[in-house]
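Appendix B, example 12.
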Amino acid sequence: MASYKPVVVPAVPKLGEKVTQDTLYWQGYKTPVQIKEFGAVNKIDFSPVPPYNYAVTASSRVHIYGRYSQEPIKTFSRFKDAAYCATYRDDGQLLVAGSEEGSIRLFDISGKAPLRQFDGHTKAVHVVGFLADKYRIFSGGDDYSSNLWDIPSATEIVSYTEHTDYVRCGCASKLNGDVFITGSYDHTVKVFDARAKSSVMTIEHGHPVESVLLFPSGGLLVSAGGRYVKVWDVLKGGQLLVSLKNHHKTVTCLCLNSSGQRLLSGSLDRHVKIYSTTSYKVVHSFNYATSILSLALSPEDETIVVGMTNGVLNVKHRKPEESKEKSQKKRQPAYRTYVKGRNYMPKQEDFFVSKPGKCVLRKYDKLLKGFQSSKALDAVLEPHIRLYTPEVTVAVMQELNRRGTLRSALAGRDEKQISLLLTFVTRRVIEPRFTPILVTVADMITDIYQPVLGQSAVVDKQFLRLQEAIGREIDYQEELLEVLGMMDALFATLTKKKATYLEENKSNGLTKTLDQDTCN
């Protein structure tokens, strides 16, 4: 009896990814380092001065990490409850953080105990930061208020209560020491000037605002909320420039790279998108294990740190640039070294030993070998096969059809299995490489389960979707044939028929003969 031959899965060429300068630049990071924190990481902030340490706010602690350290080099834990939004001052000497109990604490990086404590909010303070003059602090809390504080006297300067919901994000202008911005769950972004008694500008984002970012020039403002990232022109009174919808879930954090030419956004969909600030198109994307809450990029883009909902801190360092001398590869053996002896012909006195190669069969091959058609089809309809390698599923269907057992494999299935089969066929039948066999499968399913139509709303809905998909594909094919006919007509009118050399000679010879006859 001949040995079983495994199912041959036809290879299909894949389109290569377009490699751009951004792809090379953002892929130049080492394997990430994972650091486990005590709770969800709600804020990451890099020190603006060397050695560029970064503060991580999670649970009731603020940890200070060195750029290459995996253990905190300093910890601020004087919080009764959760801490929020630990932010460095521009000189890197002071750190301010909000808290769940409503107080704001100011720390000296070289000490442990807080230098100042600001009390005035009645609920949790989720956003704090320094104004550009370095002597004042702004804050926003769940009591709907946005406050301004004086550092030397530890007193409240002014309190704005214009928001009608939680204030969860904010930033300060780096050019003007009196301007700061807050974003709220009331769908608005407000621009405040410490010299005015009320906000000087209100921008309607349309969704609860999770993060705001002001460009270094102060002319452009970015807001994130819901699935949208929106860019506003502050100098034109808050005019909307562009609205980006590249995430599938809520966008939680924003960040600019060191040059200000790339905008980064993190989302609960586990992705970090990188946009060009000129075209606002996605130039690269990072994928992470769980939902992202916070994001920070070090000066010169040397380190990218992402904080996630499960308390994991993901740290990526840029690979060092290798010198040309080190990057030169060692000389490899010549090609003939690897093929040496491949064409050797055994002599008469040689003993020829052949070792049969062991063929490891996959699950569906084992089932096919045992003539278990229905179970073999079930094996290739598993999610990891039908979603990521549909060519394997189609190859097994083709093999069953060749054997004549496809109809029996498709028959006798329950509502869930029929729905799964129809979903797969509906999704893949329009792909040219799968169309021939999947049309046969669709015909068989229709013939087998036509008597039970109307008994299950789920199955009926899948049949209608299949009908719509095939109808759309037929319409596309008809339109393409029409376009092809138009193009053929155009090419026919543009193409001129040119006489060949032989035809020219024949015509010339005939003309000469006629001329001679006329003369005679």
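Residues 363-473 form one domain. The chain has two domains: 27-317, 363-473.
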